[in-house]
Amino acid sequence: MRVDFVNQAALEAGLPLPIDALGHQAVASRLLTWSAKLPPGSVIAVQGEWGRGKTDLLARLAAQTVSDPGPAGPALWLNPWQYGTPDLLTPLVRALHARSQGKLSPALKSASERLIKAGLNFGLKGAAAVVPGGQVLDLAAPFLGELAGVALGEDSGGDPVASMAQDFRDLTQAILGDYSAAGSRLLVCIDDLDRCAPERQMALLQGLRFLLAAGAPVTVLVALDPFLAREGVRQAYGSQGVDADRYLDKIFDLRVSLPGLRAQSVQSFWLGRLAAPVLTAQGERPLRTCLPDPLTQVSVDQIAPVQSLRNPRVLSRLSGKLALLQSTGDVPATPTQGHAEALLLWMAMGERWPAHRALIQSGEHFAQRLSAVARQVGRDQSQVYDGDPQVQALAPDAALAKVLMTLLEGDLVWLEEAAGTLALLGL
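Given the sequence above, the corresponding structure tokens read:
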């Protein structure tokens, strides 16, 4: 099974997790221990590149809190990507209400309403941040002023951020009861933040920081791609000169990076994908038993000769496409081990560099176009095929160049035919 999108219901129903080929269980257990040692109101960044397995790691951590909930109960799972509105705190407040089982006092219910309105306030400000001239903020100003007065205690003369943080602290302490005084922490896992638009990323991160300012008995873990997070900061501020890492260091109390993948771990992960059951006319069988032998004997080193392809999501997608092809009898013939290696490398390239692969197939003379793209992305711009402006516009990419040069060393006549077969199938 592939864990890519998780929600609270699936988690608490007993989300089935795949074999831990990547060693995430140990990291999850360590993070769970650290979460109880950090001060109340801490925010931890779980960093990893696209497809590296951040959701898998968070799911393993959250699953531990379901099987062994402790006094704080299971972790709360939030995915801001699934909400299209600027309202950022409503999902969290609703989850806390569900946890309270309707036992909140009228005062805490009022605090919840103020938090929801404050979340809308932050969301609208974040949406306006990217509009030239601030037109959205101008149009929303009367509404925002009304919300600020109602939601953040403006009439009381207090600090609005402090009032919001205190409301959240009161709410979470009430839900944890006496356990909050004993150091128990409610865990909140936030996934897919980097799939949101930059302005929503920044609004959520700022809202979290303000929300936890009073030291609520909560630890928040946020999964993010550090590259996309940095770009999000720069886009939100409209400047490439912004030191994004310093900004992120202000948001997070701890930034944990997923460890680099070892060759043995990636190979184990790939073998696990090949062992996954697929439905056949004879019932469920492991995928590897339904594929030609040469395809099952290719190692990850041949499928992914560069780090860009040694990615759990790339390998999962690749095994999924192989399962689809075998189910309809459309797997291209691979007479030799070399042909099998070239086919899998070509398919993996389509997951990481789909635009380049499409460009190679966009006209006649497959081998010449493949060679031209390889030269261009490898910084050698001599003899670019037919002066094609699309080829000439390609940016240098050493990893892609290595992949293309590897393909050029194989049977290009066969590869063109196999690539054409896949293209006709939309793969």
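Residues 129-156 have pLDDT under 50 and may be disordered. Try to locate this feature in the token string yourself.
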